[in-house]
Give the backbone structure.
Amino acid sequence: MKRFLTVLCSLTGLGSAVALLATLPVSAPAPAENPLTPEKIALGKRLFFDPVLSRDRTVSCSSCHDPQHAFADPAGQAISPGIQGRLGRRNAISLINAGDRGALTWSGTSPSLETQAVIPMTDHAELDLTIDEVVARLKADNQYSALFRQAFGEVASMQNTVRALASFERTLESRNAPYDRYQAGDASAFTAQQARGMDLFFGKADCFHCHTGRDFSDGRAHNNAIQLFNPDVGLAERTEDDADVGKFISPSLRNVGLTAPYMHDGSFKTLREVVEHYNAGGEPNPNADPLIRPLGLTDAELDDIVAFLKTLDDSTIATNPAFREEK
Amino acid sequence: MRKLIILAALSLTSALAAPVSLNLNIMNGAQPFTGTLTTSAGQSIQTTMWQMYVSNVALVKADGTEVAVPGLNLIKLDGKGPFQNIVAFKGDAPAGQYRGIRFDVGVPRTLNHVDASTQKDPLGLDVGMFWAWNPGYIFSRYEGKATIGNQTTDVYLHMGEDKRRLTVDLADTMKPGTAISVGAGGQTVNISLDASKMVSSGLNGGKFDLSDAAYVQVHGGAVADQLYLNLSGAFSLTGAPQASAAPMDMGK
């Protein structure tokens, strides 16, 4: 009987399907055009940490998306340098749970992780390669050629490169923070101050209107009145509409205690500065979201909110071997 | 009876789809373009790439009605050329007499907002025509190198977005005569593109001056609008080609 079942599984392909399921990690849903496979994830992970994708082979995706900081900028860096120390304009967004987001980049204008991955590879201030150069470099590498054949059954292309990177990014799922334990019924996961901060977050401080859902983002672009004259126009870059100047996607607050500094340009160094900004009602700005107004929070209440925000930090990210470079 | 057969044969001929091809010649004013573009401010740009989409093609009848020639093509040129006798588009249309042709430089709106990572070439990511930060295709992507002062500068003239989908209308229904005759064997339509016109006019009646950074790296905004205006007058129908007798080889 056992032998019969084994034969049946082999014949139906069930055996390989079961093996596949056993090796796939928890992940965000993948698009039909790019189903997850262990081979794609492994290739994407290698590419993610490999400076081969930068012009002078000095910078990789992980240079700005550091696993030690929830895949956001390394400690304290407002803008992480690309090749030759070049600085772009924006703070690197955490990639944790990025596969569940619909609006990617600070202006929310990339429709998928696959397409978004083209931006840093070709941006002159980041990795600074052309699409043709990426493909030629990977085709010339025997190890990568073999990995692309295993993952896609064909040679390297930009389409397959971004599909592999996106596959790895979809595995960067993590919701093991004190907040999650508290929501699951563990009252000891919060201090009294953190519980007060949560009430303020979802009440008097109105944070939850933009920072909503399980990852604390509405995925929409808002102007949060931090700078009237900002050289980075945000959403207006795509729409060319003056009313969209200074609008940026609400970032997820997951792991916000690990990803300082803050805002699209990293101009706020601490969470305390961020909540003080919102409490003051921001700078005058014709495009400011109507919810940006003086909140009348006391110093103690601001401390409470900051304490609550730190319950969204998942300390297991930095130690998860699936998220680290394989040496 | 014989008349009936001839009539039936004639109507069948006019209804049959024949291959139609757009043959593009890029010019520099009256001379063939060789890869060097000179702006109205007198700066030279050495072309390294010029790619553009052609879609929404239609042949225009004398009464102004149109016959669609379905399809989409990406013209891909590097700095070496050739810049003449480029197959800009191939499709099928009913044989007949037409007053001219109309086409778009761009990708139809229905395709312009798909995720390029899900598409095959020429709409996939590998052709480099999708703005990853901006869901939409670059309709015309021109790149080159110019020497400004003592420095060699990369020039990027990228035009895209729905509002800059350029409809090129090369059909004049006010003038009698047949501009394009599509026989049973098909027809090659010769069109020319005067590259110099792309950099002929700057903003507010000024020059297209690369010493102003706004003209050097163009992705959107007012200078992209100017590129649209400049290119809108750069195409023309050349010659009055005759119907080809033999069927075209669509495999080439």
User: Anything to note?
Assistant: The interface with chain A takes residues 115-118, 124-126, 128, 130, 132-135, 161, 220-221 of chain B (CB under 8 Å).
